[in-house]
Write a structure and sequence with these properties.
This protein is of the alpha+beta class and 302 residues long. The chain is built from ten helices and 13 strands.
């Protein structure tokens, strides 16, 4: 996806993959790879130096654990001619803290799933237990009794509790312009989930759910590509679960359905003002994405 967009964006543009692990899988691809310093404040000068060495003028963070770093230091990078496609820190913090996320959307009357650090605040037949802060752990306890939920929480660093709801899991991929408004939202069913990421997903159409999710996106005032998860109950009501203020693992589905967020972000970086004419109609047909491991082969010159 990135290569397609960059080739259209500029004949001189290129994609450089970066990771602090030298043996990251992306280092084995037939693309330029930067074994970069860890995204820590003490390494800012080294990272800026590396960006200049590789002629990097735009950074696209894709991992929860590094979003704080890039957002907090976005102005420093911009002063060095390096744009970072990430939301502002105040909005970002709302999404990376599940308790704050609930409190914010609940205060604005959105149907967000109830979240508390105290299980006794929740009256439910079964519970969900997860880490409060994104990036700490993907370990999650689902459909647990009160006793089992308390026991499971002891394994987590900063546990929060939620009531367990059964229903259709959905994700919504969108792109938010520089004004923080959602330009286009495509919803999809999460038909098969592995390690927290959808590996089989399919178009989902529901005008009521879409209006609610678009309202939440606009209220959060995020920037760039964003993904939100929700559960559709048997009654048709929804419960918003969480929001990932970045490209998600299956967000290429949104791109294939018309959410051309990276291209739109690059256009804004060049000074263009977002225009609704950029946005295509959402496909009425059903689209299914199946994510499979792919073998790559390269001829090695010795």
């Amino acid at each position: 996806m990135c290569l397609e967009i960059l080739e259209d964006y500029s004949s001189d543009a290129k994609l450089i993959l970066g990771d602090c692990s030298k043996n990251n899988l992306s280092s084995w691809l037939d693309l330029e790879f930067w074994h970069m310093p860890k995204t820590l404040d003490k390494n800012i000068d080294l990272i800026i130096e590396g960006c200049k060495k590789y002629n990097i003028t735009c950074v696209l963070p894709t991992r929860d654990g590094e979003l704080y770093f890039w957002s907090k230091n976005k102005n420093i990078f911009e002063k060095n001619g390096i744009s970072v496609l990430v939301s502002d820190l105040s909005q970002l913090s709302l999404c990376l803290d599940k308790l704050m996320f609930f409190q914010f959307l609940h205060s604005h009357k959105f149907p967000v799933i109830y979240t508390s650090v105290n299980i006794n605040d929740i009256s439910s037949n079964s519970y969900v237990v997860k880490e409060r802060f994104s990036g700490e752990s993907k370990e999650i306890g689902l459909d647990l009794s009160h006793e089992a939920a308390v026991e499971f929480s002891c394994k987590l660093k900063n546990p929060v509790f939620q009531p367990f709801y059964s229903g259709q899991e959905i994700s919504a991929d969108t792109w938010c312009s520089s004004t923080g408004n959602a330009a286009m939202t495509v919803m999809r069913k999460r038909l098969l989930v592995h390690n927290g990421e959808a590996v089989v997903t399919e178009t989902y159409h529901d005008d009521v759910a879409k209006r609610s999710l678009d309202g939440a996106f606009n209220c959060l005032k995020l920037r760039g590509n964003v993904m939100m998860q929700a559960i559709v109950l048997s009654s048709g009501d929804i419960r918003i679960v969480e929001c990932n203020p970045r490209f998600g693992g299956a967000s290429v589905f949104g791109y294939r359905s018309g959410v051309d967020g990276l291209r739109w972000s690059l256009r804004e970086l060049t000074g263009e003002v977002f225009n609704p004419s950029w946005v295509p109609e959402i496909p009425s047909r059903t689209i299914r994405q199946v994510r499979l491991p792919k073998d790559n082969y390269y001829d090695i010159c010795i």
